[in-house]
Amino acid sequence: MKIRIMLNSIIKKGSVLILAILAISCMYKEPNFTIKGDAALIKNIKVNVEMMRDGGTKLATAYYNGNSYTFDNTNVLRYKIYVSYQDKYFNTIEMDNLHSKIKGKSINEITIRKKGSKITVSYKGIEESSGSADKELIADKVFFEAEDIKKEKEKFTGFYK
């Protein structure tokens, strides 16, 4: 009888400990990336996110031709976002991941806009910020002219899971 009582006590305490660990880990989970913009425009967008962590770098797809994808982006130190429109226009956005160090609600929001004949991209990490300045997507012939960027074209157009 004593063994049964001890086992029940251990199970209850262990369950409480597991629930506490899960609650704490959920509190620091990064939000998924969301892509905003006119549906006719973003259906031709590809967004890949390179995540730099202490343990290395990983590339994942956040948005690919009208479909959103989720991936584990916890404990990321720095993001590099690769944006492609119709595989013809490109640009990147890079930033440190300061969400846990800045007060505010993390949102990881990427907005695609059409301004006249230009297409722009911006990133907003926390709800309370104004976000990054719009960056124009640049034609591939101009954007990939630099030799060191040519090898990265697959990071814009590939699908990563």
* Strand proportion: 35-45%
How many helices? 5
Q: Spell out the helices and strands N to C.
A: HEHEEEEEEEEEHHH
Question: Strand order, biggest sheet?
Answer: 4-3-2-5-6-10
Estimate the global geometry from the Cα principal axes: elongated
Report mean pLDDT, rounded to a whole number: 83
Overview of the molecule:
The protein has 161 residues and is of the alpha+beta class. Helix content is 27%, strand content 39%. It has helices spanning 2-27, 39-42, 140-143, 147-150, 153-157; strands at 34-36, 45-53, 56-64, 67-68, 78-85, 89-96, 106-115, 118-126, 135-136, 138-139. It has a 6-stranded antiparallel β-sheet with strand order 4-3-2-5-6-10. A 4-stranded mixed β-sheet has the order 1-7-8-9. Strand 3 and strand 4 (67-68) form a beta hairpin. Mean pLDDT is 83; it is low at 22-27.
Short structural summary:
The protein contains five helices and ten strands, in the order H-E-H-E-E-E-E-E-E-E-E-E-H-H-H. It is an alpha+beta fold and 161 residues long. Strands 4-3-2-5-6-10 form a six-stranded antiparallel sheet. It has a four-stranded mixed sheet with strand order 1-7-8-9.
